[in-house]
Amino acid sequence: MHKVRIVQKVRLAPVRERLRAIEDAGYNTFLLRTRDIFLDMLTDSGTNAMTDRQQAAMLMADDAYAGSESFYRLLDSVREVLGYQYLLPAHQGRAAEHLLAKTFVKPGHVIPMNYHFTTTKAHFNLAGGTVLELYAPEALNTQSSHPFKGNMDLGRLEAAIREAGPANVSFVRMEATTNLIGGQPFSLENLRQVKALIEPLGIFLVVDASLISENAYFIRQREPGYADKSVAQIVREIMDVADLCYLSGRKSCMVRGGLIATNRTDLHDAIRPWLPVYEGFFTYGGMSSKEIEAMAVGIREMTELEVAGSSADAIQYFVNLLLAKDVPVVTPPGGLACHLDAMRFIDHVPQTEYPAAALVAAVYLTSGIRGMERGTMSMDRDSEGNDVPSDLELVRLAVPRRVFTMSHYQYAADRLRWLYEHRKMIGGVEFYEEPPVLRFFAGRMRPKYDWATPLVEAFEKDFGTEM
Ligand SMILES: Cc1ncc(COP(=O)(O)O)c(C=O)c1O
What we know:
- The structure is a single chain.
- By secondary structure, this protein is of the alpha/beta class.
- It is 40% helix and 12% strand.
- It is built from 19 helices and 14 strands.
- The protein has helices at residues 15-24, 52-58, 69-81, 93-104, 118-126, 154-164, 188-198, 212-222, 231-241, 265-271, 275-278, 289-301, 305-308, 310-324, 342-345, 355-367, 406-421, 439-442, 452-463; strands spanning 39-40, 86-90, 110-113, 130-133, 172-175, 205-208, 244-248, 258-262, 337-341, 369-370, 372-374, 394-398, 429-433, 444-447.
- Strands 2-8-7-6-5 form a 5-stranded mixed sheet, sandwiched between helices. Strands 9-12-11 form a 3-stranded antiparallel sheet. Strands 1-10 form a two-stranded parallel ribbon.
- Helix 2 packs antiparallel against helix 12 (289-301).
- The longest helix has 16 residues, at 406-421.
- The radius of gyration is 22 Å and the shape is globular.
- The two termini are 33 Å apart.
- 51% of the residues are buried.
- The mean pLDDT is 97.
- The structure holds pyridoxal-5'-phosphate.
- Residues 45, 92-94, 117, 119-120, 175, 179, 208, 210, 248, 250, 258 line the site of pyridoxal-5'-phosphate.
- Pyridoxal-5'-phosphate (PLP) binds at residues 45, 92-94, 117, 119-120, 175, 179, 208, 210, 248, 250, 258.
């Protein structure tokens, strides 16, 4: 329910140029330049198409260091949409995580969650905490029709709290559409059960609401009793159950920035002193006032049904195209991307050779599409320096909201089918430069043997040298 009014030119660099580009980038798609990318499906984070209303609001930005009217407009939106009275702005999602870690995570603490996110885990670990992922077995089944693979396993939660002792639990975190296992939602029933379990123990519930509108959209579609409720009502119900939420504004809100919001005075008062230390003054928190204005609009717009479903519906279309071509993808379709299952796509490449990292490079080589590795490369080593094998090896082909058209997904599906037919040509990769934290951002890799050149030659045989 929108039309395109501004476009950005893209270029399809020929396959030999792509080979040079991925070599220069150390086989890490994060290190590619966009001039070498045809369709950028790295992330849905900050890459969404804004609305005319968001752009217009940016012109009204009040750049005052303190007391900016832009902040109060965002506060009004947060109160209306999330139902929370207190707002602490932050420059992006991980900054909110840093503030939570600084305030509540103490050495020896555990933080139960439905699944970790990379930046979340990094901050909580740096503060001395241990992340516990308490998902149900179905969460890791990539060929599932389970509607809520983001649910927490209540039995495991109860056991984990008993073992750690409630005083050593910083809080429980539920991530709306668990990013790393395919953008899978939790149900409101599960969220309520989690809350009922932890509230009597004095443990509070945090929702990572970065993809809250998509999670609410799935609840409306998949959870009995919610079909007639609006996305706005469901978002409010989630927030009524949670004690505090934080978010990266780059996703559902379609802007850059982040925030923490709550009705709990004690939680707010504990975090607030750190805001000017790490982020900025209370009324901007490291965001530009233009972003604050755009967020004030985006947070309201995300509750419109067509907006909440804009990426979810496109992902479903994309996933179904690939399923029809027998290309292994994660099901059911989730909330931020179409995910290729690398362990099934290239089952001849062992996990020690980073199959998802190899596959994402091969996807770029044969299509010009940039995806993101979400597997062992995205896991940092343990304290002994050993690789930590990831639960899943996924290639994330993110679907930024309102950016691509159906023909883009058709192109992608066509090239991915070709690659699947030539999958045996893909080999493993190894690190030759490896940073100690969040290594997937800047690490450099190379093929274990030269499998890229023969793959490019096979591609040229079928498509010529210009594609
Ligand atoms: C679920 C989730 N939480 C937190 C973050 C971190 O947010 P940011 O990238 O704005 O720092 C992300 C980013 O992708 C995310 O997907």
